[in-house]
Every structure is written in C-alpha cells, then in structure tokens.
Here is the input.
Amino acid sequence: MKKVLTIHFSQSGQLTEIVDNFAAQFQDAEIDKQVVVPMESFPFPWTTPVFFDKMPETVLEKTIGLEENTYRHDRYDLIIFGYQPWFLSPSLPATALLKNEKFRTILKDTPVITLIGSRNMWLNSQESVKKLITEAGGKLVGNVALSDRSNNLVGVITILHWMLKGEKTKKWGIFPKPGVSDEDIEGVKKYGVLANDALHTNEFGHLQQKIIAKDGVRVDTNILFIEGRAKRLFLIWANLIVKKAEKGNRNFWVNAFKYYLIFALFIVSPILLLIYNILILPFTQKSVRKQKDYFQQIRLKKD
Ligand SMILES: Cc1cc2nc3c(=O)[nH]c(=O)nc-3n(C[C@H](O)[C@H](O)[C@H](O)COP(=O)(O)O)c2cc1C
Here is the structure.
C-alpha cells in the first residue's frame, strides 16, 4: 500500500481543514497525519505587539524549537506539506520544520506537494519553501495555493479582525469573511483527486499542469507587483530591528515597522499600483505573463 505523510501547522484550523479535505481523496493509501507543534506557543488570537514582533525572525527565516514528531515510517511515497506565509515568508513553524534534520531525512528523494493557505501573498514564501525542499533533496511535484479572493486592502482589514479577535467572522457584519472561502476549502478536494491519481500511476510529471488547469494557483498582477518589491523592504526592516534590539530598542522599531506597513499598504501601494497599471503594465505584458507562469509552476529559478 502507498504511504502518504501529511504535515502542517495551523492556528485557526483553516489549514487543517484544507489538508484534511485534500488527504481524504487518497484511496488505498496509508496516511500518516502529523502536526507541527512549536515549543514556543503563538497566541491565537494575537495581540498587535506580538503579531508584529514576529516579523524579523520570520523574514530572516530563523528556526524555532519544535516537539519531535514520531513518524510511522522512515520513507513515504508522497509528502503533503501544508503551510501558511507570515510576512511574505514561510511561517516560523513551517521554516523550522523544513530545517529540522529528521524531517529533512524523510524529505530526501521523496515527492512533495505543498498546500498553501494564505491571505493572498505567498509568492516569496513559496520561493523559500522550494529552496529548502530542494536543499533537503526532496522533489516538489505540485503546489496548490489557496488565498482570500477579496480585494487586497479589504483582505488586510478582515484578516486583522480574524487574527486579533480569533474569529473567522464578518467584521461589523458588513465585510466579507476573512481568509480562504468555505467554497475554496471544500474545492481543494478536486486537487486531492488529482494527487491520488498521480500517486497510483506514479506519474507526477503532469500534476502541476492539471492543478493549474483547475485554477489551483492564481497569480494576481497587482500582487505580483507588490511582492516583487516588498520582500526586499521587509528584509531591510528585519535586519534593522535585530540590530536595534541589541541596544534594547526592539519595541520602538517593531512599532515603527507597524506604522510603516500600514502607510505602505494603504497609502503608497494604491498610488504606485495606479501608476503601474496606467504607465507601465501596458508595455510589460509579456514579461508579466512570463513571471506569472513561473510562479504557477514548481521549478526553482537558478540564482
Ligand atoms: C503573523 C502573520 C503574518 C501573516 N502574513 C501573511 C503574508 O505575508 N501573506 C499572506 O498571504 N498571508 C499572511 N498571513 C495569513 C496566513 O498565511 C494564514 O492564512 C492565516 O494565518 C491562517 O492560517 P492558520 O491555518 O494558521 O490559521 C499572516 C498571518 C500571520 C498570523
């Protein structure tokens, strides 16, 4: 019988539902369902200072302590790795897992499918995940990226409501529900069916094309533009905060980053996007299409 490992971390349970719906489609396969348990617990709901305080280490992809998982087997025919981006990077538990020696041994020479449960900015984090999987000798064969389909700024407001209240509900009863929609969480089953076929035919080569054909990886032009610039700025802030923290100034600079982010998201990016869409996008359609295609695929760009 084929052996499948599913592993993920989730605070609200959103990613658990996604992974479970996907994994439920495997037939004649033994499923080892594992969860990632960080030694340091992350609050849910978050408080604003703790939420932003996680930025530097997340962006710098520092590792954190994890409870050791007890896997049923040393080798699997397929690994389903579910993760969520935090600050345009894999979440701290996700990074820690990908850097964990025991998990890296299991990853070696094994096909991996990533399942992303994001707000809408997962492009940079997936690049890091691709690198870490490749470094461990794993073989990425598929990626399903689920995200909030609402407008970017609406999504920021609703996710903050969710993260700081702990309830995936409509803010003031008028905003849309935050995060990945119930339909998309349910709809992930169709990609599970594709993965089950690939597993039993041992043919993972066309899996990603089939996932893309069923709308499993959407890349939005405006998000592509924002993510293409924002990670570099986050890295500058992360390094600055770590440096300032040595002098005991961490809280001040984390707070400064919070206000910077609000300003960048709500004031700067709408203006830049307007200029970009009117003056630049019409002349760069071909390169944008190429970039979108790259992010939908699973291959890793050579540096
Ligand atoms: C600290 C933090 C930072 C986040 N940053 C991002 C981000 O950069 N991009 C994104 O698409 N979603 C971001 N999210 C949303 C998560 O990716 C995820 O969708 C949400 O937290 C629900 O995941 P859960 O299954 O762990 O509850 C962030 C969430 C948290 C808690």
User: Anything to note?
Assistant: Residues 222-293 form one domain. The beta strands are 2-8, 29-35, 78-83, 85-86, 89-90, 111-117, 139-146. The chain has a mean pLDDT of 97.
